[in-house]
Design a protein that fits this description.
mainly beta, 4-stranded mixed β-sheet, 4-stranded antiparallel β-sheet, 0% helix
Length: 314
């Protein structure tokens, strides 16, 4: 500035660049999941609001609860967690350009899960003997307790250290409720069962001493002694015949005691329809339709015998 006398005065001008408004790190809506033995993957995510121009930044998502300290690792156990963004880091720009930063919070709830159903072994209790209660199923670390329900039919039902006893003298049951308590991650689970005290008896005849014709049969009214041996062919009554003709097969071991267990087949697997066990050493048989020239096979429970070649005449 120049006055009337020509004096010059320099007037300083000060420029002040104010800091930008406060940055806000907000969080998504809270989430609810159920415990599944693994860290959660569904939880509120952070959003940074208030950055100016093209500045960029990131934050770390952290979790905490009344039982667990602040951590960047997603939680696993059932609880209600406070979720917040923390430790803002600028990739372009600087936090010093802003009034400050506000970290908002949200929640991530992990509910307790149901236990696998309880399965109590109900079989094996015997009158007069203690019965150990065996539990299958259930989840977690909760304590197992057994309680009598009061509707049992067996007298003197009692439980001590997972062992059930009764003063029953006849078949009856003790009804009990088995409970596995809740723990950090699982809800309580229970099941009611009836444990029957059974009575077992061995109903078998006593072995008797004996030999020869006086041997004891232990309840059997008759028996058959099979003294036969494997069948043996010796000769044919006729070496040839037409279909429908009766021929004789001679030999031994033809199982005369039970004709139903003897099979006679002509060549090419054609079974005889009509035959008679004349004795243990002779069979009379009618040549069946379809039989062809070849050997005849006799089968008994003791073995197989084949004849010489038999010729079927036209």
């Amino acid at each position: 500035a120049t006055d009337a006398n020509g004096s010059v005065t320099r007037l300083p001008i000060t420029f002040t660049i104010a800091k930008a408004d406060t940055i806000t790190v907000s969080m998504d809506t809270g989430t609810v999941t159920t415990y599944n033995t693994k860290p959660i993957t569904s939880y509120p995510k952070p959003t940074i609001k208030g950055l100016v121009n093209l500045e960029t930044a990131t934050v770390t998502t952290k979790f905490s609860s009344g039982s667990y300290a602040l951590s960047a690792s997603p939680p696993t156990n059932a609880d209600t967690y406070t979720v917040t963004g923390a430790d803002i880091t600028f990739m372009t720009g600087s936090l010093t350009y802003y009034q400050g930063v506000i970290y908002e919070t949200s929640t991530a709830v992990i509910n307790k899960a149901n236990q696998t159903p309880l399965n109590i072994s109900m079989y094996g209790a015997v009158i007069g003997s203690p019965f150990t209660i065996t539990l299958l199923g259930g989840s977690g670390t909760g304590a197992v307790t057994e309680t009598l329900t009061g509707v049992s039919t067996a007298p003197g039902c009692a439980i001590s250290n997972h062992v059930l006893t009764s003063s029953a003298t006849q078949i009856s049951y003790c009804q009990l409720q088995v409970t596995k308590a809740a723990d950090t991650n699982y809800l309580i689970e229970s099941s009611t069962v009836q444990i029957y005290f059974m009575q077992f008896g061995v109903n078998m005849p006593t072995n008797q001493v004996g030999s020869g014709s006086t041997i004891a049969l232990n309840g059997i009214t008759s028996f058959f002694i099979d003294a036969s041996s494997a069948p043996l062919f010796t000769s044919l009554g006729s070496d040839s015949a037409t279909v429908g003709t009766v021929i004789l097969i001679n030999g031994a071991g033809f199982y005369f005691a039970d004709p139903s267990k003897v099979s006679i087949k002509f060549w090419r697997n054609v079974g005889a329809i009509t035959y008679t066990l004349v004795s243990d050493s002779q069979i009379s048989v009618t040549v069946p339709v379809g039989a062809t020239t070849g050997r005849i096979v006799i089968t008994t429970p003791n073995g197989i015998a084949a004849t010489s070649t038999f010729t079927v005449l036209p």
